[in-house]
Amino acid sequence: MELKISIVTCSDTRDLAQDEAGAALEELIEAQGWTVASHVVVRDDVSEIGDAIVEAADECHANVVLTCGGTGLSMRDVTPEATRAVCERDVPGIAEAIRAYSMTKTRRAMLSRAVCMQRGHTLVINFPGSTKAARESWEAVSDQLEHAAQMTAGGGHAK
């Protein structure tokens, strides 16, 4: 399946040129032969993050939106709230899998508030903002993205 993946980096301190985690995700997406549908950096603001997710899903027609950053315990970390505000259905297993995998790397993974949800036919997954953690999150779930996107788009299980 040809996947179109959008990246929404959530940061008050970075712009696109400084977005190392987002750039790493672009490389990982392209290495799979998939397409980067869009890549933006927005401030840590519920409305801006929500608007970027909506645009990636509804205008860029991404199968998957990866948010990057804003999943921690700081009061400025509002990516999960923004994701919940613009998505309909919770997909807890993906966020749980990322945390479980990341816990094998660092115990601080338990501090993540990241969520995964569906917006229509688009899967939205919150990744942490550091380059290392974003790569690890990709390692945890990338082998399931094609099937998840196919099911989110209304595909059925093979019989």
Features:
alpha/beta; 159 residues; 6-stranded mixed beta sheet; Molybdenum Cofactor Biosythetic Enzyme, Chain A
Compose a concise summary of this entry.
InterPro entries: MoaB/Mog-like_dom_sf (IPR036425), MoaB/Mog_dom (IPR001453), MPT_Adenylyltrnsfr/MoaC-Rel (IPR051920). 41% of the residues lie in helices and 20% in strands.
Major sheet characteristics: 6 strands, mixed
- Unreliable spans are none
CATH top level assignment: Alpha Beta
Cα Rg: 14 Å
Bin the strand percentage.
15-25%
Helix content: 40-55%
Any overview of this molecule?
This protein is an alpha/beta fold and 159 residues long. It has a single domain (4-152), classed as Molybdenum Cofactor Biosythetic Enzyme, Chain A (3-Layer(aba) Sandwich), CATH 3.40.980. Helices cover 41% and strands 20% of the residues. The protein has a 6-stranded mixed β-sheet with strand order 2-1-3-6-5-4, with helices on both faces. The protein is globular, with a radius of gyration of 14 Å.
